[in-house]
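Tokens in:
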């Protein structure tokens, strides 16, 4: 498993635990949204492994970035609405931003290699 896949899977596991925690606190709407977007990052990376072309690979990784961006949004809302404490928020947000940086770097390298 490569670094991006491993980090995305570890992040997804943290999001699954967050979802369970939020449900225990009685929050169901945002918890479902962040579960969907946070686990979708790694799912799209997994799908990209069998991309049909470089363009397809780039497209799948772009979808992962979009899902990470959405996850970042839900994290901000959960933090601002006081469902998620500062320390947990910062840790999850840092992991999410790291995934975005890794994926962006990979996409940029793939695009530059095409030229």
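Residues out:
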């Amino acid at each position: 498993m490569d670094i991006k896949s491993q980090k995305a899977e570890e992040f997804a596991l943290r999001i699954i635990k967050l979802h369970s925690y939020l449900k225990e606190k009685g929050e169901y709407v945002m918890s479902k949204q962040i579960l969907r977007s946070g686990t979708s990052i790694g799912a799209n990376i997994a799908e990209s492994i069998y991309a049909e072309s470089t363009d397809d690979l780039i497209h799948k990784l772009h979808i992962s970035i979009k899902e990470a961006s959405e996850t970042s949004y839900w994290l901000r809302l959960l933090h601002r609405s006081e469902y998620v404490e500062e320390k947990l928020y910062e840790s999850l947000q840092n992991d999410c931003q790291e995934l975005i940086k890794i994926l962006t770097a990979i996409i940029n390298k793939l695009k530059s290699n095409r030229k």
